[in-house]
Amino acid sequence: MSSVLESAGLPSGLFDQPRILLSTEEFFALWRGIGQASPDPAIGLALGTETKTEHFDPVVLAALSTSSFGEAMRQIARYKQLSCPEEVVLDPGDEEWAIQFRWLLANETEPAVLTDLCFAWVLSIARHGTGMRISPVRLELQRPRANARSLERHFGCTVVFGAARNAIVFRASDAELRFVTRNAELLAMLAPQLDEELKQHKGEESFPERVRATIQRKLTGSRPKMQEIARELHISSRTLQRRLQDAGSSFQKALEEARHQLARHYLTNSLLELSETAHLLGYEDSNSFVRAFRVWEGVPPAHWRGTQREKAVS
């Protein structure tokens, strides 16, 4: 493991800490390191496959205790935010049902080994829950063709490389497949605990913080409008304004704080050019971003980034 941490640029004593906290970029670096260190190109599939119930975490145990594959994935999507800034996106259609993993703070594509692990994990839950060797319709991967035979053999379906998204696609009817692992008593015990954790997790955030987090998820090359953020929070624009005012804030202030936080993250944890950072933050040009950053930090972003790197080295 020391070689993995070294190649990932992470501290050698990382796993000696009582609580391990990683940025998304550090998490990706860790998984790239695992992929590089392993002689097995299918290591992600192996790590994502589990058949023993006792090895599943409470979230998966609660999911396996539900009545169907679809309900299980809805449970997982609900509680996933407890562990990391990641969304499980369920996209049901008339004939197909696509499942994607969206990393909310990522500014790069996730490592292939992590994509393999996530989709193997979904398949493991589906097969364990249904008691059948269910297979998806296809696997869609953004990366170039590689290890196709291992992937096709593991998932039992066609693998499309160079796709527009990373997704595991099932038949729409697969969502209704009943779970033989259904356990109402266990679910009744686990769900309230997870709901309480979720409540505490959300309760730790003030309303302006929730607005900022929602804005950050939408800051992907364009400036989100108030109506869009209100819709994401399932409230009206008027209610959004009122609640922000009650908390001593405003939408413009929340937007600037969201941009400020993300700007610091990008400058510290990525090699993005300033023009790319400005674009991701929804600025029309680099000069607008530089002016805003001077207001926030008192220095230009390039100078601030250089100072942070010097601190990291010293």
Describe this structure in words.
By secondary structure, this protein is of the alpha+beta class. It folds into three domains: 1-37, no CATH class; 45-197, no CATH class; 205-313, Arc Repressor Mutant, subunit A (Orthogonal Bundle), CATH 1.10.10.60. The chain has 15 helices and five strands. The protein has helices at residues 2-8, 24-37, 43-48, 58-64, 69-79, 112-130, 148-155, 184-203, 207-218, 226-232, 237-246, 251-269, 274-280, 286-297, 301-313, and strands spanning 86-92, 96-103, 138-141, 158-161, 167-171. The protein has a five-stranded mixed beta sheet with strand order 1-2-5-3-4. A hairpin with a 3-residue loop joins strand 1 (86-92) and strand 2 (96-103). Helix 4 runs antiparallel to helix 5 (69-79) and helix 13 crosses helix 14 (286-297). The model has no long low-confidence stretch (mean pLDDT 87).
Index terms:
alpha+beta; five-stranded mixed β-sheet; 314 residues; Arc Repressor Mutant, subunit A; 5 strands; 55% helix
- Placed side by side, the strands forming the largest sheet appear as 1-2-5-3-4
Rg, rounded, reads: 21 Å
* Residue share in helix: 40-55%
The helix/strand class is alpha+beta
Note the main sheet: 5 strands, mixed
Order of helices and strands: HHHHHEEHEHEEHHHHHHHH
- Strand segment count: 5
Terminal CA distance reads 25 Å
Q: So what's the overall shape? A: globular
Taken together, the total number of domains comes to: 3
InterPro entries: AraC-type_N, Homeodomain-like_sf, HTH_AraC
Pfam family, one: HTH_18
Organism: Tunturiibacter psychrotolerans
Keywords: DNA-binding, Transcription, Transcription regulation
